[in-house]
Amino acid sequence: MSGTTEVQSQPQTMHEVRERVDALDRELVPLLVQRAQCMVEAARIKQHAHQVRDEARIEAVVQHVRALAVQHQGDPDLIEVLYRSMMEHYIAYEMQLFARKTPCTDAGRERS
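The chain above was modelled as a monomer; its predicted structure follows.
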């Protein structure tokens, strides 16, 4: 995932497949954590809850990752499904973060 394509021999056993998956997870999880940190920053910056879910941005991301999937000889439909699910979870996470920063208000006034 360093941006270079490596030619790997095909695994011959399930153990080898699982080792490859585990190695990929060691690369993916730190990236997912970084992506979650972006949601923390977004929740900090956004002023209104309706800004958390941005349908135009969601569709732009989907189109971008579909193109990346094709570029890397992947299945764009699979990547879209994975990304849509992931983004829904990140949006829910960002909503929780946003809700924590927003004090309860009544007609624009803070409650005491």
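The domain at 15-101 is CATH 1.20.59.10 (Chorismate Mutase Domain, subunit A).
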